[in-house]
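User: Let's play a game. I give you a shape written as tokens, and you guess the letters that built it. Ready? Here's round one.
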């Protein structure tokens, strides 16, 4: 995904995440703050969150390149790219794997806005004031490491089944 998302300008990236969640079979919407919220079931929930915005923003999509080895390079690419990728991976896995019978909460996925700097946790503050917040029993925050070099190594991993096969596991 080569969608710039500086704080307060996350709308295009939010729209992209909304479509991904829906394509994976989640009920998803964008709230008044700009957070993308995807749910399964009616709660209570465990909320898994990752912020959409970046500290360093590219001027345009062409400022972000994909190297031959799969690395994304450019301003802001490593700013929570791992957290957002994990959010989508969990969304896909949750829909494709059987749900444990003893699980007492549903999952709520939140791609939140306004986390960086002047954003002052705008998206999470908004979420915590909504009626939905009363159904959230716990929050798990995915926040990938930032790198000064502005490179996100290993942006594309081979599918898990390929990695397991090479390791000798079935």
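Assistant: Ready! My guess for every position:
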């Amino acid at each position: 995904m080569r969608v710039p998302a500086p704080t307060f300008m996350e709308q295009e990236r939010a729209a992209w995440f909304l479509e991904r969640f829906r394509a994976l079979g989640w009920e998803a919407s964008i709230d008044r703050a700009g957070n993308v919220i995807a749910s399964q079931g009616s709660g209570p929930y465990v909320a898994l969150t990752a912020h959409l915005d970046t500290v360093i923003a590219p001027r345009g999509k062409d400022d972000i390149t994909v190297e031959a080895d799969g690395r994304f390079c450019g301003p802001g690419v490593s700013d929570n790219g791992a957290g957002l990728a994990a959010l989508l991976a969990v969304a896909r896995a949750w829909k494709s794997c059987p749900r444990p019978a003893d699980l007492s909460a549903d999952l709520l996925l939140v791609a939140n806005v306004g986390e960086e700097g002047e954003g002052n946790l705008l998206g999470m503050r908004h979420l915590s004031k909504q009626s939905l917040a009363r159904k959230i029993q716990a929050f798990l925050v995915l926040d990938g490491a930032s790198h000064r070099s502005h490179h996100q190594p290993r942006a594309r991993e081979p599918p898990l089944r390929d990695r397991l096969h090479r390791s000798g596991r079935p």
